[in-house]
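Structure first, sequence second, as always.
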């Protein structure tokens, strides 16, 4: 039963991540409240899974990865290359996705960051309406919101984890036992 609650916490994090991406795109701000709520959702899910499995490995791995990401991205904030909200967001993501999916998140983050860079360099690749929106936004703000690729990579990773959990649960007969 704890697996279902942990899965529900992951599902609840997806709309919050989408909200963070939109707010970061439109205002260049990631609120501490949203990051703290993500931390609570992620740590709660990890706690439930750790209690169920009896192993605290994922909790420790996620805390270590979060600390490492925070320390690694802090110099970029000091150089004013990214915002403080971006640093806090990337430090919280390992709690949401757990240690086992950090590789998937890293690959997706690289893909979305490269796509963002390609759009910034060549906005003509976008359809006309999206082109106008992006160009007007970038001209007005002058910076690229890094919270958007972080959020998109986290959403896709959570979707993958939810799909994998449901696939394993349905193939092992756990869902039939719950009915």
């Amino acid at each position: 039963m704890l697996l279902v609650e942990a899965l529900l916490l992951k599902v609840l994090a997806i709309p919050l991540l989408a909200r963070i991406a939109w707010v970061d795109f439109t205002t260049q701000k990631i609120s501490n409240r949203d990051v703290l709520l993500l931390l609570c959702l992620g740590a709660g899910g990890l706690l439930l899974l750790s209690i169920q499995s009896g192993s605290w490995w994922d909790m420790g791995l996620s805390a270590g990865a979060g600390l490492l990401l925070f320390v690694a991205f802090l110099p970029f904030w000091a150089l004013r290359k990214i915002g403080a909200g971006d640093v806090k967001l990337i430090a919280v993501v390992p709690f949401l996705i757990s240690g086992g999916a950090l590789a998937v998140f890293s690959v997706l983050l690289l893909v979305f960051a490269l796509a963002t860079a390609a759009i910034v360099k060549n906005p003509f690749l976008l359809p006309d309406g999206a082109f106008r929106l992006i160009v007007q936004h970038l001209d007005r703000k002058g910076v690229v919101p890094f919270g958007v690729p972080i959020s998109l990579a986290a959403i896709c990773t959570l979707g993958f984890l939810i799909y994998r959990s449901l696939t394993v649960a349905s193939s092992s007969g756990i869902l039939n036992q719950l009915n």
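Margin note: Helices lie at 2-27, 32-53, 57-78, 84-97, 102-121, 128-141, 147-172, 174-178.
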